[in-house]
Amino acid sequence: MKRVLASLAFTAALAVLQPAAARAEFALQDTDRVMFFGAHSTWPASFGLQVESFVRVKYPELKTCFWHWGPAIPQRILDARRRFEDHLTSFRPTVVVINFGTEDPQLKPLQEGVRGVFYAELIAMVERCQQAGARVVLVTPNCPEVERKTQLARIEYDQVIGKYAAHVRKLATERQLALVDWYQATAELIASGKGHGGRNALTTDGVHPSPLAHAVAAEKLLEFWQAEPHQVTVHVDWQSLEASTTAGSIGATRKSESVTTVRLKDFPMPWILPGARARVPRVRPEGRFCRFTFHVHNAPPGGILTAEPGGKATPWLEQMLEGGFDMASIGPLLTTRPARTLMERIKSKNRTVDRLERFLTHQNPEPEYAEVNPKYQAAMVAEIGAQSRIIARTPRTMDVTLELKLAKPPGK
Q1: Cystine design at 45: which of 67, 275, 377, 407 (Cβ 3.0–4.6 Å)?
Q2: 77 vs 128: CA distance, rounded Å
Q3: How far is residue 296's CA from residue 402's CA, in Å, rounded to a whole number?
């Protein structure tokens, strides 16, 4: 890992395209169609899905469409490019985010010639995107956690993947393309001791990225696109019941000696990270892109429990309440019906994309289907468009009632 970080110090000096400091607007527009195209690492709860869910809650009026492609089984870039033209033609993207390199060395011998094929295929894919008028963002493969498996450490697999990442950086520099260096970001986290298994694991098996690692890539891509943080601050005084919020409206009433009811109206939805839940703040505590800070002043001794009426309660210690705790990472806001509805509609649309991919891969070759296949493909593309429009009109604010209960009932 030391050699990996030494090489990163050099590659960090390469011309990685960074967002201009003077540009304040979010890079994606209503007319943009964003296609995430990659290997098994981009399927299904990938960083692309996390980016899409962020855009939906932070920019509710934005009509940008998202399309995620990734095979259900490991696949090399050479195999994937055979389907690339179909997706480019069907979706006509204006932005293409490309991520390969995690599986290529696993599926072929670790030879220099194989990396040459990888580089040539990546160039061909980029050139085809540019011919179609699409903006390209390259994403390096994530860094493996070789400490999790002896065989990975024995062949120094982090350095093997590092060479593929170097090819991606080289192409980004030569063609002046946008680059998200996922490898460097995850390698730095691993070196700092914030990975290595358990809830903080950055891979599922030492190689493939975990939901947490996908969140790292999502943050890097949002950073490049100049996304604004999705932040809300709520204050509630336990004694006086005075309450305020920076978004929507709020009211607090005393239900009983041990229960205070807080009603939030037209309140924004938090960024729900598919598959990650509360894991992200454990490694990235700064909460740069989503933080719903909930302050409870004059908090009762022993702390409180928060929940929707009749729902599962989340405990908060007294010392956490005055300084504020983040309800965007854990707690009842993540499980409200409006939040679940939005996420289910996003997932449903992406399941249709997956169904289209399976159809393109296994079309019926019989001559009787010569006319049927194009019509079926067009119908699924139309369905994806309809589902995208449904997502666009799905509410992004919610009315929520929270009960703040004494963690220790009076007299105990």
Answers
A1: 275
A2: 14
A3: 13
- Where do the structural domains in the chain lie, given as residue ranges? 2-224, 229-412
The string of pLDDT tens digits covering residues 193-244 is 765 555 568 888 888 888 888 889 999 999 999 999 999 999 999 999 999 9
Strand partners, 99: 38, 139
Is the distance from CB of 76 to CB of 104 less than 8 angstroms? yes
Distance separating alpha carbons of residues 62 and 56, to the nearest angstrom = 8
118 within 8 A of 112, measured Cβ to Cβ: no
Average pLDDT for 102-108: 60
Domain formed by 2-224, architecture: 3-Layer(aba) Sandwich (3.40)
Q: What is the pTM of this model?
A: 0.83
DSSP state of 35: E
32-71: pLDDT as tens digits = 999 999 876 666 568 998 899 999 999 998 989 998 887 6
> Can you list the pairs that 16-23 forms with residues at least 24 positions away whose Cβ atoms lie under 8 Å?
16/169, 16/172, 16/173, 16/179, 16/181, 17/172, 17/176, 17/177, 17/178, 17/179, 17/224, 18/224, 19/223, 19/224, 19/225, 19/226, 23/226
Among the listed residues 285, 278, 146, the one whose alpha carbon sits nearest the alpha carbon of residue 202? 146
139 has a pLDDT exceeding 90: yes
Rounded mean pLDDT of 389-400? 91
Reply yes or no: is the peptide bond before residue 44 cis, omega within 30 of 0: yes
Q: Which amino acid is at 369?
A: Y
Q: Which two tokens stand for residue 81?
A: 């490019």
Vertex 66, ends 362 and 216: CA angle to 5°? Answer: 105
